[in-house]
Amino acid sequence: MAKNILHILGHPVQNSLCKALLDAYQTGAKNSDANCKTIIISELNFNPNLSTGYKNREAVLLEDDVLQSQKLIQWADHIVMAYPTWWGSMPALTKGFIDRVFLPGFAFKHHKGKNFPEKLLKGKSIRLLVTMDAPKWWFYLVYRAAQYRMLRDLIFGYVGFDPVRFSTFGAVRTSTEKQRMKWISKTEQLGKQLK
To answer: What is the pTM of this model?
Structure first.
């Protein structure tokens, strides 16, 4: 049976390395007969600010694009998200997308007397394609990949994604065209493997 793959572009600029990487993954996935759909966060119409937190969610309007994004996430077996690292994390719009879409009742559910939530997105996997200007070795050795631990343990693992995989591309600022083409080719191969 063909896998359903959802591609999410978290870079506000479409003419970016993140978009090229996401397109390469999609090319590989389509060559493996996957069903592919795409969300481009910068094209969505939604307020990225979870203005009332989780306490008064009923007062927060769920825009059509938020509801459609939730439907696409439910449809997907595997998600691939590409975004740049800005100030040690993802762009604010991408984080706002997570805040607004991965809501209680959709992504997780708390039960009285239990310390940990029910993970409502079990059975799905995710790969994050992350670009950065820092060299990869610096990101892992000095920063200890703190961003990845947060995403794996406190966001995507928290709601049930397993496995949560990362592909790191850096340092972009000093990379050559040859290096970027190598990254794109490697990402297409990941798409062919559907992981």
So the answer is: 0.95
Q: How far is residue 28 from each of residues 123, 126, 187, measured CA to CA in Å?
A: 22, 16, 8
Task: Determine contact, residues 70/101, Cβ cutoff 8 Å.
Answer: yes
Q: How far apart are CA 138 and CA 84, in angstroms?
A: 16
Q: Structural domain boundaries of the chain?
A: 4-193
Per-residue pLDDT tens over the stretch 115-134? 989 999 999 999 999 999 99
Please state which CATH class domain 4-193 belongs to: alpha beta
What pLDDT, on the 0 to 100 scale, is given for residue 138? 87
For the stretch 61-116, pLDDT in tens is 789 999 999 999 999 999 999 999 999 999 999 999 999 999 999 999 999 999 98
Q: What does the H/E/C string look like for the chain?
A: CCCEEEEEECCCCCCCHHHHHHHHHHHHHHHCCCEEEEEEHHHCCCCCCCCCCCCCHHHCCCCHHHHHHHHHHHHCCEEEEEEECECCECCHHHHHHHHHHCCECCCEECCCCCCCCEECCCCCEEEEEEECCCCHHHHHHCCCCHHHHHHHHHHHCCCCCCCEEEEEECCCCCCCHHHHHHHHHHHHHHHHHCC
